[in-house]
Task: inverse folding
């Protein structure tokens, strides 16, 4: 077995399908790395912040996965169609669309209290899933997130959920849907839910910042002004986010992590100043429509690393 790691990013895997222990210090698992391989066990260390799109797609021998809370983003279709996946302990902040779609044997999902966003169709077609607990930390459940989970009977939703997308539980066999009575946005009637009437505080920061590091963005805005409380943009902070078009980075920010804006397909402009002293590998890769990135002169020598493709 061999792992190719560049700039903290696990880029390639070559092996015979045995268990894989990803070494501590790896910051991200790149897109497609394990796709379609015969790996049956993977250990993900607490240093990993990004699991790329399709990273484990169609790994048909993978039986279980545990994702640490260090992860900011689980990419689109990262574990989709892992047909023998039985259990998933899911940490992190954002579970992107279709991340576990059609894991048809998935029976147990445990969501950490760090999860904020469950994306569109994230667990679509997980036909053996019978119950799910949405922790208080979750604020958004995407459209069709659990649609087509034909055996899903029991859903418990925490007090933090403020958005539930269309058809989130379509095609499920719900007999009990419970919402925390302290949830100010939704109320349950036992088998369904509806919005609560009345005025409530809608304010919530869309920026997840820990110890000065901007870890993730959960908002829907197109013009992004990095908050002054962030002095670093973390690994994969905006990974595969289609919303931003303009990003303004204030003069207090000193670093931009690997994959920070990777796959932000609609980004046009990113503005930052000489205060930035380091940029991680593939920070701006696959920003297909960008028109301008105001990069300080002292960082331009390594520009190929910042835009390097998969």
Result:
């Amino acid at each position: 077995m061999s792992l190719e790691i560049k700039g903290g990013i696990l880029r390639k895997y070559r092996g015979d399908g045995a268990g894989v222990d990803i070494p501590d210090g790896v910051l991200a698992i790149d897109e497609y790395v394990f796709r379609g391989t015969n790996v049956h066990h993977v250990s993900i260390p607490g240093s990993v912040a990004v699991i790329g799109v399709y990273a484990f797609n169609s790994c048909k021998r993978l039986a279980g996965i545990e994702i640490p809370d260090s992860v900011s983003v689980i990419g689109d279709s990262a574990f989709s169609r892992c047909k023998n996946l039985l259990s998933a302990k899911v940490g992190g902040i954002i579970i992107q669309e279709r991340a576990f779609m059609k894991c048809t044997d998935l029976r147990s999902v445990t969501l950490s209290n760090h999860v904020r966003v469950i994306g569109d169709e994230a667990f679509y077609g997980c036909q053996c899933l019978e119950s799910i607990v949405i922790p208080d930390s979750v604020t958004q459940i995407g459209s069709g997130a659990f649609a087509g989970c034909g055996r899903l009977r029991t859903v418990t939703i925490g007090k933090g959920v403020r958005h539930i997308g269309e058809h989130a539980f379509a095609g499920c066999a719900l007999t009990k849907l419970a919402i925390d009575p302290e949830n100010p946005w939704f109320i349950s009637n036992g088998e369904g839910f509806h919005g609560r009437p009345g005025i409530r505080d809608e304010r919530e920061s869309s920026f997840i910042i820990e110890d000065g590091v901007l870890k993730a963005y959960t908002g829907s805005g197109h013009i992004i002004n990095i908050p002054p409380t962030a002095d670093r943009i973390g690994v994969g902070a905006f990974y595969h986010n289609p919303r931003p078009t303009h990003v303004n980075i204030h003069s207090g920010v000193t670093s931009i992590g690997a994959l920070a804006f990777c796959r932000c397909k609609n980004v046009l402009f990113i503005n930052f100043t000489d205060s930035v002293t380091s940029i991680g590998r593939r920070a701006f890769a696959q920003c297909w429509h960008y028109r301008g990135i105001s990069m300080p002169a002292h960082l331009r020598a390594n520009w190929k690393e910042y835009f390097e493709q998969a």
In short: The two ends are 21 Å apart (CA to CA). The helical segments are 303-307. The first helix runs from residue 303 to 307. DSSP finds one helix and 28 strands in the chain.
